[in-house]
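DM between two lab members

TW: hey, do you still have the RNA methyltransferase entry open?
JB: yeah, one sec
JB: this one, 109 aa:
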Amino acid sequence: MAYDEGLAERIRERLGADPAISEKRMFGGVAFLYRGNMAVGVTGDDLMVRVGPEATDAALARPGARVFDMTGRPMRGWVVVDGAAVAEDDALGAWLDEGRAFAGSLPAK
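TW: and the structure you got?
JB:
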């Protein structure tokens, strides 16, 4: 599956200056890891965000967010955000900050 390279580039621009960020192809898209833990990714036209189990319900209440379900089994702690919902830089930045904050709460790999 192809992924939205434009969205990936916007993420690179926003996160690229941080030396703790690395990039890895996975899930048919691209993932951005913070200190070795996945924080966000792009799959198709959408943004995947790791928010953590405790923040899942609040994240799902935000515009464009839905349950992350790639295998028929929803993954608590992750959400998928419709690409249209992150068209504005402020909206994208808020999601990126949230994903990076959760990944940063985990032990570095």
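TW: got it. The beta strands are 21-26, 29-34, 37-43, 46-50, 65-67, 78-81. The two ends are 28 Å apart (CA to CA).
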